[in-house]
């Protein structure tokens, strides 16, 4: 089941594409992925996933976004983007799907350092 949860990450190769930003602390069996900003020290996004299987055997991956940011960033976030990030990520998942949502999130966090 853990491998199923990471199959999207392995297919998209996010850890290989963005080695400075994407970290799977426990390798392929890691239950979460950390995305770090090189340009904003202390700013991290953590994607946590769980796999749910219903009584009919249907598999439902559940992904959640957690934020880890310096207190000063929270104080300066007048639009509450950090506070609303988990809900916005859920919306993004529904619109784009898992792979594209992860790619979009990583690219947005890495935009400054890659270009």
UniProtKB/TrEMBL annotation:
GO terms for biological process: CENP-A containing chromatin assembly. It comes from Callithrix jacchus. The lineage of its organism: Eukaryota, Metazoa, Chordata, Craniata, Vertebrata. This is Centromere protein P. GO terms for cellular component: chromosome, centromeric region; nucleus. InterPro entries: CENP-P. The gene is CENPP.
């Amino acid at each position: 089941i853990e491998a199923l949860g990471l199959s999207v990450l392995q297919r998209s190769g996010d850890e290989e594409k963005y080695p400075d930003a994407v970290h799977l602390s426990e390798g392929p069996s890691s239950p979460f992925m950390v995305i770090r900003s090189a340009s904003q020290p202390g700013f991290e996004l953590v994607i946590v996933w769980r796999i749910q299987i219903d009584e009919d055997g249907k598999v439902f991956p559940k992904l959640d976004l957690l934020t880890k940011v310096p207190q000063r960033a929270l104080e300066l976030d007048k639009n509450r983007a950090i506070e609303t990030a988990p809900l916005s990520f859920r919306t993004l998942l529904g619109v784009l799907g898992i792979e594209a949502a992860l790619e979009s999130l990583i690219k947005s966090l890495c935009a400054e350092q890659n270009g």
